Amino acid sequence: MSMISRFSSLLPMSTAKTTVLVLHGYSQNASIFSKRLGALRKQCGKNVDFVFVDGPHILQPVDLVGMASPSASAEATLSALGASEAGVEKNEARAWWKWNEHKSEPLGLPESLETIRDVLKTRTFQGVFGFSQGATFAALLCALLERPHVYPPFLVDGKAPHPPFKFCVSVSGFRLTGTIPDAIYEAPFLTPTLHIIGRNDVIIIEERSHRLVAISANARVEEHDGGHFVPSKGSWRKFLAAYLEDPSDDIPSPSLAMSSANNSGTATPMESETPQMKL
Q1: Dist CA 106 CA 178 (whole Å)
Q2: Which CATH number characterizes residue 245's domain?
């Protein structure tokens, strides 16, 4: 599978107004996430060039053991994460790091930083868009590009591989901890960041997402009544498309466009089926 998948307008890339690096969630991959964002990509049309990148770590079924409570079935765990047992067995499920409760450091984070460093060397991105673990990684990259020397392996010839992003979209993100993240987050990051939080997200609960908001010095927070997914109703698609085109614009909240009971899009898993997980 190619590490990079591009889904842009029918026009040549040079005419694209905004190029966005897109990072998938745990147990997804670039292809899966591109399909999940199909409606948003269509809404953006020729104005946004989405570049989806695969996490370097291929997951096996054992990587999901212990992530949920003993009462949760493997099927429910995989479903909640947007994966399937067949997908895991075919090596299609990927991650930016793996969770190990006996280690304080996210396993595989250095390899993912190297992967993204090599992508960033090749072209210029105006912003970054991430979901769940990918949202967490997106925020970490924003902070690192602002202070690249705190992690020397990320440098290229002693310099950052890319200028700081102009914006970040973090959907169901959380604050990553560990030796490397703690050094990167020694000071709040300044990149304008849109934090999208599901009020009924039982995988990344609101409290965890707000810990990331707390170290985001230029944050905008939008909430929806759904769970662990990118909201996809029309009001949200229009809002996100407008934000991606010009994050500095005064864009009305999507919650103003329709009632909160109907503004999320996808059915939300029940809490009993999808307990909070450590990604």
Answers
A1: 7
A2: 3.40.50.1820
Residue-range definition of the domain harbouring residue 222: 4-262
Give the chain's domain count: 1
CA 142 to CA 128: how far, in whole Å?
A: 8
Enter the tokens of residue 152. 């020397």
Residue 16 maps to a domain: yes
267 domain-assigned: no
Q: Would strands 193-198 and 167-171 be described as parallel, antiparallel, or unpaired?
A: parallel
Phi, psi dihedrals of residue 254, rounded to the nearest 5° = -65, -20
Q: Which residues contact 186 (CB under 8 A, 6 or more apart)?
A: 147, 150
Question: Which helix H or strand E contains 139, and what residues bound it?
Answer: helix 133-146
Cα separation of 202 and 67, whole Å? 13
Q: 102: which 2 tokens?
A: 């006996």
Residues 128, 143: contact at Cβ < 8 Å?
A: no
C-alpha to C-alpha distance for 119 and 98, rounded to whole angstroms: 21
> Coil, helix or strand for 246?
coil
- Is the residue at 17 inside a domain? yes
211-266: pLDDT as tens digits = 999 999 999 999 999 999 999 999 999 999 999 999 999 999 998 865 544 445 44
Examine residue 279 and state whether it is found in any structural domain, yes or no.
no
